[in-house]
Fold this sequence. Notes:
Elements: H1 3-15, H2 22-35, E1 44-47, H3 56-63, H4 65-68, E2 72-76, E3 106-110, H5 124-133, E4 138-140, H6 155-163, E5 166-169, H7 176-185, E6 189-195, H8 205-209, E7 214-215, E8 225-227, E9 239-242, E10 245-248, E11 253-257, H9 273-279, E12 298-299, E13 314-317, E14 329-334, H10 345-353, E15 369-370, E16 376-377, E17 382-387
Parallel strand pairs: 1-2, 1-5, 5-6, 12-13
Antiparallel strand pairs: 2-3, 3-4, 6-11, 7-11, 8-10, 9-10, 13-17, 14-17, 15-16
Amino acid sequence: xxxxRSLHAAKAAKQAEYYTQYIxxxxxVEAYLEFDPDTFRxxxxxxxxxxxxxxxxxxxxxxxxxxxxxxxxxxxxxxxSPIAGQGTLFPEYNEGNGKRQKPKALAVILDHVKDEDGDxxxxxxDVKLFLKRNKAARIALKADEKYGxxxxxxxxxxxxxxxxxxxxxxxPFYLFRQYVAQLVEYRKKFLILxxxxxxxxxxIFPLIKDNRLWLGVDNGGxxxxxxxxxxxxxxxxxxxxxxxxxxxxMGTIVWFTNLDHGRRHQKLPLMSMAENLKxxxxxxxxxxxxxxxxxxxIEVPAYKEIPSDYDGIMxxxxxxxxxxxxxxxxxxxxxxxxxxxxxSKEFVDAYYESGQTGTICEGHPDLCYYDxxxxxxVPYMRVLIEINREAKGRNKK
Length: 397
Ligand SMILES: C[S@@+](CC[C@H](N)C(=O)[O-])C[C@H]1O[C@@H](n2cnc3c(N)ncnc32)[C@H](O)[C@@H]1O
């Protein structure tokens, strides 16, 4: 590998070392249990970007093994992890002299969790004890021809993936496309974290459109991830230190899944077009919704302003996907991949003359419109949707 490419890869790998908090995993998993208490019952759960001695995904599923009714829990760690062994979940990697050993990639497989310490309760303390007593429960993972040990694409990890029913983790963001492609190829159920931007990837959006992947439940707020003290964070507002532990918030991180949950069956309450024009904040002063100049659809500035009685195509912000219910709406396309008429030279000139900056040009595929003050506008990326009127008459006007 050329030197700067390998440096780049090393930097990306280091930046991928941020750890999900237990509470975030618990909140999300519990939302699925509320919808179906048997979501994980009898299932093999695989956390494939998770050092069992450091990851809260492993910790959560191990501690709740019996409550969830798991058949098996598998966790594999990655050899390439530049900070492996520096985590604090189990004292496993501590040599007792203040130094930590860098562990090799390994798999831990649990097929039961029982009261190891005989205190009458079955919990994470029993898992710790079990791991201490049963060194055989760990399998060293080797590099294969193409990938390092513990890489989710390595032959051994793919073999474990084959055994799994549900994959749950926070994978490295820089490999997100390949990661999801593998889950889809192996037809796995999954619950994973990823950057909200991934919605717009050309490999991801078609899955959303086809209802093969959707957003999870606990999205929208800021999620904080635990990082090592020397983790490089340029923006101050993205750092917080609590009880000596450093946390980092990066962009908008959301849950992606193909497990069913209650929120996607809740109907988004909508007002009619006339009501929206009368009462909605961003439509104030308008007599009609704006229409795109280069595509036959209306511009809806906020998902709350989707009119209940409009039958054509509507462009809505991406945050609509937080509220998407496939019985209520149909997703048609993302503006980025839509065949528009392209912007006219006249529109582009008017846009720049009005003092706006951006990189648009004649023929540009983004949606554009003249607002009711005749100001040329190019909104941020839009999801093009329609109300699903075919869904058993449930979405009458
Ligand atoms: C964002 S961190 C999340 C860690 C853990 N899943 C959690 O949520 O706390 C991503 C993890 O994936 C690991 N990783 C990076 N590349 C990987 C690969 N190709 N295969 C498997 N794991 C990988 C990193 O070592 C890192 O620990």
